[in-house]
UniProtKB/TrEMBL annotation, chain B:
It holds the Pfam family ABC2_membrane_6. This is ABC-2 type transport system permease protein. The lineage of its organism: Bacteria, Bacillati, Actinomycetota, Actinomycetes, Glycomycetales. PANTHER family: INTEGRAL MEMBRANE TRANSPORT PROTEIN, SLR0610 PROTEIN-RELATED. It comes from the Bacteria. Keywords: Membrane, Transmembrane, Transmembrane helix. Signal peptide: none annotated. The chain crosses the membrane at residues 27-51, 63-82, 123-144, 150-175, 206-225, 237-256. The keyword Transmembrane helix applies.
Length: 267, 268
């Protein structure tokens, strides 16, 4: 797929979501309410722990929450079944007839969607958080360069995992069970409810190094609040890039197997 | 006469349960999955207390009692009316019009056709945690405390039912804004999971007092624990859940009626 084509598809993805104005307003308002709830609880945790909780100051924790609430919409953690729906109805066969591998079309569409979400669903909760709560502004200018890369990597990893969940529909047809497993795992293991550093150390290490979930939310939020300094930021970004490559390769190869499996019903 | 009114809905619920139980593996997996969500709600409380000995001036057993009262109420409400969330789907697809034609009341129909028995696992888990938390936290049992620990999850359930219905009703006007209702349903659950001393300023006043979530679990728990309110509220607020539930239920009933009358269909 050529770059210009990819860009055109991404633009269509952006424009498609720009038309859902009510939904965008509702989602950002909801993210902001949850941001307040989680920020207050984590701030109280920091206060109770004597100012620093799990290595985060109160300011860092509250900003961590607001970055997470913004990211939720940008990476689109939940509620994506476009591919599975097309597999179930058989429409996926027309995707496969096109001269472009469907994974690129879906990825380009998703990047366009993420760009729209960044302009709306990321900015609004961040503005609410920065104006109402103690907020951590990065000290090191490099953070402003690392953060966009980290967020892009988060979008890519999350897209690949959602794509993999959807691909299981080639075998299972009904993906409700897998989807539920995904919601449980991705919510708990990505660091959305609390920073994973709150967990016992071996559990944290296992989640960090053996699963792609922290790349979706924990790592971009950590990079934003400069958790662990520059070296902490860099190895997190490194892990994210590594998971990007692994997840893309996995999604690619699973899709190839899935299409071999596809039987187009006649009639 | 009441029998002939209620029976059709019970039959609908029964049919729904039988059809879901047909696929036993799928049902058990669903049941387990749903229960895991509630495990996570409680687990978060434990994780937070790994880091801090006190939250908003309360220790683990006290916060756990507040959480258990709230989550038990929420899970019961979710079991009974949670699927009212699907109203936007019924409005959008025009299925609601089909229901309106039938000579039965619309809300019970809506709840009965989509009844999800698999949510019962959450209720069972929450009740278990409540029993453990109450026996660990409440030292001085009197008859009125026994009464309070029984009615609080029930009033909380009525309150959350009202919240589910109130937020669903907004979909008659705002079809595409389904996500907004989560701010009050799941947001309300999260708010009531922790003592309201955790929240500050306008946010606490809005959610705690104006929307009434403070009366769902926080004040009843204070009475059960025999603690004074650090915010200076009077002791009788332990029973305020009854009033809050009654007010919320009335508001929900009125809004629902207005919503149904206002409904014009989407033309689909």
């Amino acid at each position: 797929m050529s770059a210009s084509m990819m860009f055109a598809v991404a633009r269509a993805g952006f424009r498609r979501h720009a038309t859902y104005r009510q939904a965008t307003v509702a989602a950002t308002a909801t993210n902001s309410v949850f941001g307040c709830l989680r920020a207050y609880v984590l701030l109280a945790t920091a206060t109770g722990a004597g100012g620093v909780a799990g290595g985060y100051t109160g300011e860092q924790l509250s900003t961590y929450v607001w970055i997470g609430q913004g990211l939720l919409g940008v990476v689109l953690l939940w509620g994506w079944s476009d591919l599975a729906d097309r597999v179930r109805t058989g429409e996926v066969s027309s995707d496969l007839l096109r001269p472009v591998n469907p994974i690129w079309t879906y990825l380009a569409t998703d990047l366009g969607r993420a760009a729209h979400a960044f302009c709306t669903r990321m900015i609004v909760p961040l503005a609410v958080g920065a104006s109402l709560f103690p907020f951590y502004w990065p000290n090191n200018p490099i953070t402003y360069l690392l953060l966009p890369v980290s967020i892009t990597a988060a979008v890519l990893v999350c897209f690949c995992l959602r794509y993999l969940v959807n691909l299981t529909s080639f075998w299972l047809l009904d993906i409700r069970g897998v989807a539920m497993l995904w919601v449980v795992l991705s919510g708990a293991a990505s660091g959305m409810y609390f920073p994973l550093a709150f967990l016992p150390e071996p559990v944290t290490a296992l989640l960090y190094y053996a699963t792609p979930f922290p790349s979706i939310m924990q790592f971009p939020a950590d990079i934003a609040v400069e958790y662990g300094g520059l070296s902490g930021q860099l190895w997190r970004l490194g892990l994210q890039v590594l998971w990007c490559v692994i997840c893309l390769a996995l999604a690619w190869s699973v899709q190839r197997r899935a299409t071999l499996k596809l039987v187009i019903q006649g009639g | 006469m009441a029998d002939s009114v209620v029976r059709p809905y019970l039959k609908l619920v029964g049919a729904q349960i039988r059809s879901q139980a047909q696929y036993r593996t799928s049902f058990i997996l669903d049941l387990l999955g749903q229960t895991v969500f509630t495990v996570l709600d409680f687990l978060t409380v434990f994780v937070v207390f790994r880091i801090t000995p006190a939250l908003g001036g309360f220790d683990l057993s006290e916060v756990l009692l507040i959480s258990a009262l709230a989550i038990t109420g929420f899970t019961i409400a979710d079991l009974v009316v949670g699927n009212v969330e699907r109203l936007s789907f019924y409005v959008r697809t025009g299925l609601l019009d089909a229901m309106l034609i039938r000579p039965r009341r619309i809300l019970p129909q809506l709840l009965a056709v989509d009844f999800q028995l698999r949510r019962i696992g959450r209720v069972a888990l929450a009740v278990t945690v409540l029993i453990v938390a109450a026996s660990a936290g409440v030292t001085d049992w009197t008859w009125w405390r026994v009464l309070l620990v029984v009615i609080t999850p029930l009033t909380a359930a009525v309150f959350f039912c009202a919240v589910f219905i109130l937020t669903a009703t907004s979909m008659f006007w705002w079809i595409d804004a389904k996500e907004f209702s989560a701010a009050f349903t799941y947001g309300g659950r999260d708010f009531t999971t922790y003592p309201i001393t955790v929240y500050e300023g306008v946010f606490r006043r809005l959610f705690g007092y104006l929307f009434g979530f403070g009366f769902v679990s926080y004040y009843p728990a204070l009475s059960l624990l025999g603690r004074d309110d650090p915010l200076g509220g009077p002791g009788w607020l332990g029973w305020s859940g009854l009033i809050a539930a009654a007010v919320a239920a009335t508001a929900a009933a009125l809004m629902w009626r207005t919503g149904i009358r206002h409904y014009k269909g989407t033309g689909s």
